[in-house]
Design brief:
2 copies of one chain form a homodimer. Chain A contains 10 helices and 18 strands. Chain A is α/β, with parallel strands linked by helices. In chain A, a hairpin with a 4-residue loop joins strand 1 and strand 2. Strand 15 of chain A pairs antiparallel with strand 15 of chain B.
Amino acid sequence: MRALHWDGQSLQVRSTYPEPQLTPGKAVVKVALAGICSTDLQILRGYMGFAGVPGHEFVGTVVDGPDTLRGQRVVGEINFACGACAMCARDLQRHCPTRRVMGILNADGSFAEYLAVPLENLHVVPENVTDEEAVFTEPLAAAFEVLEQLPLQPETEVVVFGDGKLGLLCAQVLHSVGARVTLVGKHPDKLALMRGLGIATEMVSRWTAKSVDVVVEATGSTIGLSLAMAAVRPRGTLILKSTVAQEHALSLAPLVINEVTVIGSRCGRFPPALHALAHKQVAVTPLITAIYSLSDGIAAVNRAMEPEVLKVLLRRV
Amino acid sequence: MRALHWDGQSLQVRSTYPEPQLTPGKAVVKVALAGICSTDLQILRGYMGFAGVPGHEFVGTVVDGPDTLRGQRVVGEINFACGACAMCARDLQRHCPTRRVMGILNADGSFAEYLAVPLENLHVVPENVTDEEAVFTEPLAAAFEVLEQLPLQPETEVVVFGDGKLGLLCAQVLHSVGARVTLVGKHPDKLALMRGLGIATEMVSRWTAKSVDVVVEATGSTIGLSLAMAAVRPRGTLILKSTVAQEHALSLAPLVINEVTVIGSRCGRFPPALHALAHKQVAVTPLITAIYSLSDGIAAVNRAMEPEVLKVLLRRV
């Protein structure tokens, strides 16, 4: 089959990559659309030491597996858990210590024509959700994860730093539950997109430190953390969505002095995201910058690396 | 009066320092004992840019103020709040943005014969609590602050890093509510002291990373934070008690990947600490290394800077 393959050194379109085989407990999915995420771009810089087919955002159709699923349009959670450890017993498969992660850790991902996914990871896509919407389920679930970790009261003041894909989704999700959200970013076009949805925005160049209840750090940069730490009120909450892998100079003393709670936040459950898409509570398709065919995958990845770009998708054909 | 005075450059015993005057809303306290805290030692290295009389741990007797308090033995909370702001309205005077802090920020402290304290900050010491115990109220309250921020279930597994004064108090407080506490430190004598109280201990040199529910970082060092981050389980809680003011290299990515909650924790309310002292739920006097007279204050501070030392007290005469 055709697949984008990263060997640890270079990314190539392969036309004869082995198709995934059906094994017990899995289904084979024919990918319709896959999304390129910032994590994928980090992987192509060596993150996680991954080699294989990247990609962990997709929507597709089950072509091989149980009769009940065959022909169904599905999306899939990305953590492949052992099912037997203490974390799995707590229903925290996303934290299974021996997990494999689709396109990130010891498992081929979605930048291919076909993909094998454990059955328990699959979710059927509601009929009224398009492929172009459904492919956002995984990043949207990561935004909803904030609400699983921190139940928000309506009217809570929230500042989201970062107008990348994740920041835009977080701002929308928190806005959808009635929080008073301000999105702080550096791209006028992206901020204008959110203003069109009723979300307050501010250019970071004009931002002055405030003292707000909840701050979400989704800039993906080390500077974002400093901004976020300065913005949160004493006894407030700082949600960390950015995984900034490189070390940087930092003092956590302000967190102690102001008794701030910091919550690291990563992947989320899919059902809240699918529910929000089915009920049109968030607008994801305006985040699509471009759609490339899988065979133009290299160009797609290069495009995704440009700063003004939001979501770049790969279409199977 | 006699007082230890820090002018920003040097520490001196002054014998004619002006006595605090009684002003409305305050009481004047004759200090019996004052405790030297690590924060005081940081102040003598320039922390907070403080100049004046340091010291924020004391027990004494009210000599001037309302009739109901005169002659009473008291301890005093250290944050002098405005009483009018949003934080004060939330009963979070400790986070009042315009607060003065006893011996730390714009207010003379307890390394003196007399001290002026706002009435609302004073707490009468129960009769069965000795002066040598009562002088620990402030640091013990800081240990109890952990329980205000994170209600702990009995049997919760907790690791406390740091066998300094604060670590020893945190370990005892968490042990007193039934948590399964392990104290990790580097001083065999201090660890032995805790084992005598029924608390498990481990030398940091023999420590291997585990995956525990709750980790308390009280080492006061940058290395402690790395150890603590490695010890907490996914979705676990890391309590930061150390204020490490200097910047150091760090990546917070593990907090995001493991969805750890980090809670900055500083000063606490006095009533839980006084209750624990009155009911002998914690043992504080074994932490006293030495008692100096106020006039030997310089020697006392030098002693407090030695690594094996725990609490050094200053006695008025």
